[in-house]
Structures are given as C-alpha cells and as structure tokens.
Amino acid sequence: MSALENKRVLLGITGGIAAYKAAELVRLLVQAKAQVQVVMTPAAANFITPLTMQALSGRSVRQEMFDTEQEAVMGHIDLARWADLILVAPASADFISRLAVGMANDLLATLCLATTAPIALAPAMNREMWQNQATQQNVTVLSQREVEIWGPADGEQACGEVGPGRMLEPMQLLRQVSDHFSPGVLQGVQVLLTAGPTQEPIDPVRYVGNRSSGRMGYALASAFIQQGATVTLISGPVSLDTPVGVQRVDVETALEMEREVIARLDQCDIFVACAAVADYRCEEVAGQKIKKSQDRLEMSMVRNPDILQQVASAASAPFTVGFAAETERLAELAEAKRNAKGVDMIAANLVGGDQGGFGSAENALTVLWEGGGADLPMMDKKRLAQDLVELIAKKYHEKD
C-alpha cells in the first residue's frame, strides 16, 4: 500500500514561474493515491491555469477568499480542517514574508493560519531574493514555528542566473511528502550527536579554535528527527538555530564536551561525532589578557581527550560514527582512522580550496564501514545529511 493512500494533501500554489512544476507534482501525488486539493493565489493563475490543476487533481480549484457559495458554510475553515498536510509549492518570497508576519489577505494564507495540520514550504525565487537577509529571517521565524522548509535547490534559474532558489523537482517533493507520512526508521532510537567547533582559551579574550560552522552537525540533527529518533545535540559555539525537536546542550571546550558526552553515554543507541574538537589546549590559561610586549610568544599545549575513541571503546558502546576532515588521500586516511579508533562507520570529506566542508553550504562524503563504503556526491548539506542518516540507520539495524 502507498504511504500516501487516502492522505489529504492541500497543495498551495503561489505566483512564480515554478508554478508549472505543480502540474507534475499533482499528477505524482494522485498517482500515489493521495487526495489533492489545490488552492491558488491570484498571482499563481498568471503562470498556470486552474483548469489544468482541476483536471489533474479531480477537484475544483479554490482561489477566492470571498466565494459566496463556499463561504456560506465557512468553506475556508473546512479546508483548513480537511488537510493532513499543507504543502505550498512554489512558495514565493512574498508568500513566505506574509506567512511569517501572520497575514491573512488571501485564501491560502488564511488556511495556513487556521489549520492545525503540518505546513511545508518549497521555496522558489531568484537567488538574490532567497539570500536576502529579510527572506532568511522570515524562513528562520517560520522554522521556529515548526513550518518545514523543503529546499530550495541550487541550479540554473528562469532569469538566467545560477544559484540557490530553484524549487525542488516534483519527484523530490513527492519523496518529501512520502517521508512525512511514513514512520521514521529510527523510531525510539536515542541519538547523541556532537557538532560545531570547540574553543580552547588562551586568556580571557583569546582562544584556539577552528573553522567549523556546525552546519553539517545541525543538518544531521534535523535528519535524525525526521527519521523518528530522539536527539541530544552537544554543540560548540555556533551561530545556528536549534533544530525543532532537538535537545541542545551548549559547551565551549573539549573537556566540557567530553563531560557532557560521557554523562549521557548510557542512554544513547547511536553516537555521531561530527564536532571539530580541538586536538590541543593550553596547558596554562592566563588569568589576564596577554599584552603585546614581546616579539615572540610561546605557549605550552597539551593534548585533548579523544572523545570518539572513548565512546567506541566503552564496555557497552553505542553504534559509533566518526568524521574525518582530510586534505589528501581521503579514503586511505579515513579507513586508517576508522580502524585505529574502532568505530562502526566513518564519514570523511576533503577540506580546503573548493572542496566544500568547513563554512560551505555544500559537502561531499566518503562513508566507510567494515567491508564496504559509499560515496555521497557534492550536494546541499541538508540533503547530504538525510542521505547519510539513511546509511547510518541501515547499518545500525543490520548490527542490531
């Protein structure tokens, strides 16, 4: 049986060239046996006709808030209650903005305010509009309200520019809808995850750190939640919002991270060490700011604990996943690290130059385990995290 059989999907279409893709999305959803009700904004009808959507969905398309026939029985409230999921695809910058501030100036925006169903947005716009600070703030606000943001993808746009802002393809959105209604493969599994850098103090104002942004770790936390896991995130200092449903514990140093991980080890089934933990710390931290009074400054450094190896060697070790950032001989060095630390799986990536990794929105991974491996090509870290979590879940259940 299809995961979407008899699921009621309200598909909102806003004004943008990507509206033409909504026709294929409706066809795929109906083919998967979902019930689809299309609601179009006035601007959407400039790009694709309601008649097309009606023919594909088998239902009259709703457009007007002030439809006397429908509103005689409070039709917009009935629609808001009918939906199991509201998916807006494409979601324009204008609609995202209006939804973020709670406007109800057309039927689709009103439905989103009146519903208790989950809401997902598939953004589609010019790359500059997507990257504009106002749009990013609106997306952050909606994410904090548990609105799911599916996309956007990178690529060539209708305006001729290339970059982030393309709506996900219909097959990708079908997969997202299917995943939404399918029970996660990690239901009941406790995941402990580290992310971000550590900062090792030199004096009260300086520290030794690294370039990790935490994006990959935070994307993994979201992907584990999507698969039904319970996630505790031990995070170094980052400028990222906590993913919805994740318990976050903030730390600064490697020793603090070690303490928080070990304290929770007995309660976790899967441990993922995505944090870029500093290898060394100052043997002595100055109590006052060090003045620039000498031509040379020498510091004595001591090695930080190896958190990953401690977890992997524990008496009742969880399924353990490590990360390796390398500048050369990726597979060779990653496999050596996996064997040396005794972990179940290692995810390795090249850093430096145009390789992705630290600070980048994209990454590629070589994933290794005993007797096998897989290459995950360069892609957005959110999508990469989802693919990696699927691999982790598969190998975890095989071992279990």
- Overall spatial form: elongated
Total number of helices: 14
Quote the beta fraction. Answer: 15-25%
Tally of domains: 2
How many β-strand runs? 19
Give the end-to-end Cα distance, rounded to a whole number of Å: 27 Å
CATH architecture of the largest domain: 3-Layer(aba) Sandwich
Approximate helicity band: 25-40%
Whole-number average pLDDT? 89
Q: In which order are the strands of the major sheet placed?
A: 12-11-8-13-16-17-18-19
Based on CA atoms alone, the radius of gyration comes out at: 24 Å
| CATH-derived topology of the largest domain | Rossmann fold
Specify the biggest β-sheet.
8 strands, mixed
**Which spans have pLDDT < 50 for at least 5 consecutive residues?**
none
Tell me the CATH superfamily of the largest domain. Answer: CoaB-like
CATH class of the largest domain: Alpha Beta
Structural class: alpha/beta
Summary tags:
34% helix, five-stranded parallel sheet, 400 residues, Rossmann fold, elongated, alpha/beta, eight-stranded mixed sheet, 2 domains
What does this entry look like structurally?
The chain is an alpha/beta fold and 400 residues long. The protein is 34% helix and 25% strand. The chain has two domains: 8-181, Rossmann fold (3-Layer(aba) Sandwich), CATH 3.40.50.1950; 190-399, Rossmann fold. An eight-stranded mixed beta sheet has the order 12-11-8-13-16-17-18-19, with helices on both faces. Strands 2-1-3-4-5 form a five-stranded parallel beta sheet, sandwiched between helices. A hairpin with a 2-residue loop joins strand 18 (362-369) and strand 19 (372-380). Helix 5 (93-100) packs across helix 8.
